[in-house]
Amino acid sequence: QEQLVQSGGGAVQPGGSLRLSCAASGFSVANQAIGWFRQDPGNKREEISCQTSGGDSTYYADSVKGRFTFSRDNAKNTVYLQMTSLKPEDTAVYYCAKGPTTRGQGTQVTVSS
């Protein structure tokens, strides 16, 4: 059974940093494109980052470009989203996903002073 289990997140002040982790089981992240998306308190969904299976191409939404970094550790079968210079508008529930049917459980990120 394919599964993604997230960790990380939490509450941070504006300008702070957080790292989200997404550990896969039942498949190898090395062979799959993995993405991150978020849903804000108004339930608006935004695709924020996605990396191809070979890691040779990474997409970032304009809203996070230059602040968020997608990485993966194939040996740990885990992908990460490093978030820096966080803003209040980054407050959302963050999800990692593989395709349309496999997603993590979601992690709350709250940016507030």
Model description:
- There is one protein chain.
- With 113 residues, this protein is mainly β.
- Helices cover 0% and strands 52% of the residues.
- The protein has no helices and 11 strands.
- It has strands at 3-8, 10-12, 18-25, 34-39, 45-51, 58-60, 68-73, 78-83, 92-98, 102-103, 107-111.
- The strands form 2 sheets. Strands 2, 4, 5, 6, 9, 10 and 11 form a 7-stranded mixed beta sheet that branches.
- The model has no long low-confidence stretch (mean pLDDT 96).
Note the main attributes of this structure.
seven-stranded mixed beta sheet, about 110 residues, mainly beta, globular
Quick take:
By secondary structure, this protein is mainly beta. It has strands at 3-8, 10-12, 18-25, 34-39, 45-51, 58-60, 68-73, 78-83, 92-98, 102-103, 107-111.
Q: Please, how many helices?
A: 0
Q: How far is the first residue's CA from the last residue's CA?
A: 41 Å
Element order, helices and strands?
EEEEEEEEEEE
- Helix residue percentage: under 10%
* Structural class assignment: mainly beta
Assembly status: single chain
| Radius of gyration, whole Å | 13 Å
Which stretches of 5+ consecutive residues score pLDDT under 50? none
Task: Characterize the largest beta sheet: strand count, sense, and whether it forms a barrel.
Answer: 7 strands, mixed
List the helices and strands and how they pair.
Elements lengths: L2 E6 L1 E3 L5 E8 L8 E6 L5 E7 L6 E3 L7 E6 L4 E6 L8 E7 L3 E2 L3 E5 L2
Parallel strand pairs: 2-11
Antiparallel strand pairs: 1-3, 3-8, 4-5, 4-9, 5-6, 7-8, 9-10, 9-11
